[in-house]
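ugh ok fine here u go
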Amino acid sequence: MDIQKERILIYTDGACSGNPGPGGWACILIYGEHEKELSGHEPDTTNNRMELMAVIKGLEALNDSANKYNVEVYSDSSYIVNAINQNWVENWQKNGWRTADKKEVKNRDLWQDLINLNNLHTPKYIKVKGHSDDEYNNRCDALAVAQSKIAKI
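structure:
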């Protein structure tokens, strides 16, 4: 089996006009030579919710849950990448969905959705620098911003 063929890249981004305010999310799935763009919006949300939604929608698009893919999620959101890679999410769960300073974890509903998807696909999370020279991150940003403008209407 060609390992490279089973590798799926998911680039994600979220945008919000005001925080809270109208927001958009976007993701690009890359599988070999194939690319798929997904995006959406919400009329009243936060940037962090849109960042999470982009990752969730990307992982949900891997509709063959019986097949374990080598998934890499690329995000410019330190909130998401650090929460996964530095085990914040595990600690939140152990602490009854409380942060280290005993505050209630925001966006718990989306974190729980993401945990379930992570258990299905076991993705690796990789931080990318936002608004730089990463082609796919820039495309996701443009799509998410466009969606946030649609949400204003």
